[in-house]
Design goal:
Elements: H1 8-17, H2 24-47, H3 58-77, H4 82-85, E1 89-96, E2 99-104, H5 108-118, H6 120-137, H7 139-169
Antiparallel strand pairs: 1-2
C-alpha cells in the first residue's frame, strides 16, 4: 500500500473513499469504544456472577426491538435532542413529526461520531447493546424502561394514524 504524507491510514482513507473523505480513523475509534464497553460489561458480569439468561423470551425480543427503535430515533432525529448532536452536525430542515434532518460536519472522530449520533440505524446497535446488558444486570428496570419507550413508539404510530384519519375525513 502506498504511503503518502499523512501515513498509511490516510492513504487507505483516500483509496477507500475514491476521492470522498472517509473517516476510517474515526470509525476505528468509535468501534474501539464500543468494543471496550462490551468487554467491560462482559468482565463485570463474569466477576459478579451474572450470566445471560438461558433463553430470551420472544416478548423481550419484541419489547427491546421496539424500544431500541424509539430510543434510537429519539437520540438521532428528535428536535429536542438536537443539542446533543449540535457539536457534530448542522441543522438542515424539519422533516415532520418533530424530527429534523442534519448534515454531519467535521473530520475524523468528530465526523464519525456525527454519523453515529445522527443515524438511527447506526445508533441502534449501541442502544440494543445497552438494553441487552440491562437484561443481564437489572432486568426489571430494563423492562420498565423498554415498556416506556415502546409505549411512546405506539403513541407516535397512533398520532400518525389519527392525523391520516383526520385528513381522509376532512
Amino acid at each position: 500500500m502506498a504511503q503518502m504524507d499523512g501515513g498509511p491510514v490516510q492513504s487507505l482513507e483516500q483509496e477507500y473513499g475514491g476521492g470522498e473523505p472517509r473517516p476510517l480513523k474515526g470509525y476505528l475509534f468509535t468501534m474501539s469504544i464500543y468494543s471496550s464497553i462490551v468487554g467491560a460489561l462482559t468482565a463485570i458480569a463474569w466477576r459478579t456472577g451474572r450470566r445471560p439468561p438461558e433463553r430470551i423470551a420472544p416478548f423481550d425480543v419484541a419489547l427491546i426491538g421496539i424500544a431500541t427503535h424509539k430510543v434510537s430515533r429519539l437520540v438521532t432525529k428528535e428536535s429536542v435532542t438536537s443539542v446533543l448532536r449540535a457539536p457534530f452536525t448542522r441543522y438542515e430542515r424539519p422533516t415532520g413529526g418533530s424530527e429534523v434532518n442534519e448534515q454531519v460536519r467535521g473530520e475524523g472522530v468528530r465526523h464519525a461520531v456525527g454519523e453515529l449520533i445522527s443515524c438511527p440505524f447506526c445508533l441502534a446497535v449501541w442502544v440494543a447493546t445497552g438494553f441487552t446488558a440491562g437484561l443481564v444486570f437489572v432486568p426489571r428496570l430494563t423492562r420498565l424502561a423498554a415498556v416506556a419507550a415502546t409505549a411512546v413508539a405506539a403513541s407516535d404510530f397512533l398520532q400518525f394514524v389519527y392525523d391520516r384519519a383526520k385528513q381522509s375525513a376532512g
